[in-house]
Amino acid sequence: MTPTDPRFAPVAELFERFAQEDPAYAGQLALYYRGEPVLDLSVGPDRAPQARPEPGGDGGAEDPAFTREVMTGVFSCSKGAAGVVMALLVQDGVLDLDAPVAAYWPEYGQAGKEATTVRQALSHQAGSLGVAGGFTVEEYNNSQLAAARLAAAPPNWRPGAVFSYHGLSIGILMEELVRRITGSTLQEVYEERIRAPHGIDFYLGLPESEEPRYRDVLKPEAGPLPFIDPFGYLGTAFNSTGGFTREDGEPGELLDLPNDRAIRAAGMSSAGGVANARGLARLYAAASTGIVGEDGTRSEPLLTEHTQTIMAEDQVFGPDRADGLVKAFGVVFMKPTPEKDFGSWRVFGHEGANGSFGYADPSYGIAFGYVPARGEDGGTLSRNGQLSVRVRQAVLQALAGG
């Protein structure tokens, strides 16, 4: 779409240049400003239909073109959607961030985790990175099974002493808390209270009816991720001791996860979400400003200003215990650092391992979504920036000059 606000024309032009600078590039970009969509773009050659290989085969069904409507895996952006669910429970008064996790989930209160608080668990301080041997895909897809194993395991450090990104297990923690508090799954609460009422193209559990719109995540051209010690902190956090098995029975990597139908159908809240850029931006607009409809009326924001402040408040900042990278987290949500500066002190959002990114910045009234067709060096596993950094800076420059 052509920018509805001329101030954002330079942002659209910059995004178009990505495809000019790299003929292989394809991606999506969406922006809401004060609740109204002002950008919804896709660029690149992958807008043309391609053959979508079947697992273990040489070809198969036609892959949907990488248009604005296509959805793909967005990895840890899923945590942002789950974070809005957790924020609603806080706002409802049924989840106390400073209560022990065991107050809601008694089995978790063992093996040195008796005093671990919800706040610690939701800001990567709990030390519940994983379990010996890793989790199976089946345990992630039915996280009650994974939760029982995680509850019995000792923490990887004294809870609260340090922090390290709970790349996959934070989804188990969130899902079990929601199940214990509401009697429903996190995915059900998200669908009923957030996604469906606001028409958001961001699914935690992609229905079969939406499969024709799914596009496989393409691997980075740089190749697979480097070796990670399976028994170290990082290896434990990313399930290296268990790994993943693809649909064709071969070993899989993290970036294979959403390309497995069983995983995207289950919608694991740490990494199984499926979205397009519009869906990311619309989620954060619904959460922070409300959305202006075609009739000019605005929906109430899902989260009050007070709740947004609670969830966006910095909980940890500094070097991650596992990889030494400087990171910052609020409650569930990522926060800016000098190396990855994506907004004001009020901003809240999450990026994904493939370089996808979604966030809301209440200071500017913006909600942002970015999704590349091919994984980029610069997602949650990298110290480098990615193309979305340039776009985010352009958005802020557009607003500063307006």
Automatic annotation (TrEMBL):
Annotated source species: Zhihengliuella salsuginis
Q: Name one Pfam family in it.
A: Beta-lactamase
Keywords from the UniProt entry = Hydrolase
Which Gene3D superfamilies is this protein grouped with?
DD-peptidase/beta-lactamase superfamily (3.40.710.10)
Q: Which residues form the Beta-lactamase-related domain?
A: 15-374
Task: Please give the name of this protein.
Answer: Serine hydrolase
- List the PANTHER family hit by this protein, alphabetically: BETA-LACTAMASE-RELATED (PTHR43319), BETA-LACTAMASE-RELATED DOMAIN-CONTAINING PROTEIN (PTHR43319:SF3)
Q: Which GO terms describe its molecular function?
A: hydrolase activity
Q: Locate the region Disordered.
A: 43-63
